[in-house]
Amino acid sequence: MDTSKARGGVLPRLFKRIAFTVFAFTAAAGIVFALFTYAPEAHLQHISETVKAWEAPSKPTKISKCGAFNKTDEIWKESQLKYQHLRDDKFTIAMQTYRRPKELNDTLHGLLSEEIPSLLEVVVVWNDMETAPPENYASEHGVPVRYRHSPVNSLNQKLWPDPAYQTQAIFLSDDDIYYKPKDLEFVFQSWRKFGRRRMTGGFTRCAVEEPNGKWKYSFCSTDAAHDYYNLILSGLAFAHISFMDYYSSSDAMTTKIRAYVDKHFNCEDLAMNYLVSMLTGEGPLLVKGKEPYVSFVPKVGISTKPGHIEARSQCLNYYNELFGCMPLINETAHIEPGVIIS
Fold first, then answer.
1. Which residue intervals define the domain Glycosyl transferase in the entry (predicted)?
2. Burial environment of residue 273 by CB neighbours within 10 A (0 to 12, 13 to 18, 19 or more)
3. Nearest to 97 by CA among 149, 135, 138, 145
4. Average model confidence (pLDDT) for the chain?
């Protein structure tokens, strides 16, 4: 047998196999890279977005795993299963109001004067026990506005998982603050992609540990010593309805939380952040619009009362004792449209 001819036949075939393997690997790598770098979605065709991140803070918040909450995990799993049939391509606004008709009307007008493609319904949580709410109506773009008369004047009412809700995403809102319509659509699509397990919105605050081990409520956006946030307030935030279901459950912890909120008429938004981070191990997500959100800053409100910061700090420390840990997680990133990172 002529071995040179045999080698002459084998070597070309070997080279062809090597070349084919290299080509296939390169093509596969290109496809994977393309999937990760370019994943268009129908809802985001006209939205430019990116995540802007800074260096991690030099002294991050201490995080402790919040014990063995087996019962809590079971309740939340049941909550997730209970609502998995609801739509996730639309969202509902839950807007709480109490005797501020001008602010409420201005906010509703600002939101409903333009079309928000993914908005399914607005539910106004009417906490005025002495006055009947207006009649339900539909906006000029066909969005139903439903007034839900609360049985009691409680901040917990906004976080109640209304059985009539048809969406998994609930945009928790106050009557004196709102995103511009196009920005609210962008925030919702950002929630769908990145924020389902987070409090996702535009209103940041900080819980800051003091030298004595106590916690202080801070307007971190104006505090140069802190370049992070660990709270997104529920005056302007998306939350998955399963978190609201757990908050409103008969669990011993959430029952104590709701009682504390009713006694002090404060801090339901802080409690939601504690619960979400405890359940998921993830921090909140700040999403900015192309324009600043609108805030009327009314003369009458909980945040305008003397001692507001001190009261909020007391809430943080009470929740820490109740949870037996600090579940809040520092975040240094945010999402906004049209940002280019060099």
1. 91-336
2. buried
3. 149
4. 81
Looking at the DSSP bridge assignments, the partners of residue 104 are: none
- Among 96-100, 219-223, 253-257, the range scoring the smallest mean pLDDT is 219-223
Taking Cα atoms as reference points, which of 95, 124, 78 lies closest to residue 242?
78
User: In the structure encoding, which two tokens stand for residue 273, read together?
Assistant: 């952040």
Strands, E assignment, the chain: 49-53, 87-97, 119-126, 137-138, 144-149, 167-174, 177-178, 200-201, 204-209, 215-218, 231-232, 236-240, 285-287, 294-295, 333-337
Q: Please report, as a single letter, which amino acid is at residue 216.
A: K
Position 43, amino acid: H
* Residue 92 and residue 170 in contact, taking contact as beta carbons nearer than 8 Å: yes
Q: Is the pTM of this model over 0.85?
A: no
And the tokens for 249? 């459950």
Q: Of 322, 63, 65, 308, give the one whose Cα is nearest residue 209.
A: 63
Give the chain's length: 342
Q: Which of 1-15, 95-109, 176-190, 304-318 has the lowest mean pLDDT?
A: 1-15
Cα 285 to Cα 282: distance, rounded to the nearest angstrom: 9
pLDDT in tens, 235-277: 999 999 999 999 999 999 999 999 999 999 999 999 999 999 9
d(CA 328, CA 279): 11
Q: Which of 313, 222, 331 has the alpha carbon at shortest distance from 276?
A: 331
| Inter-residue contact 289 to 336 (CB < 8 Å) | yes
* Side-chain half-sphere CA neighbours of 46 within 13 A: 4
Question: Would the CA dihedral through 130, 303, 244, 322 be positive or negative?
Answer: negative
Distances in Å between the Cα of 202 and the Cα atoms of 9, 57, 93, 221 are: 68, 20, 15, 11
Q: Which residues contact 199 (CB under 8 A, 6 or more apart)?
A: 231, 232, 234, 237, 238, 239, 272, 273, 276, 284, 285
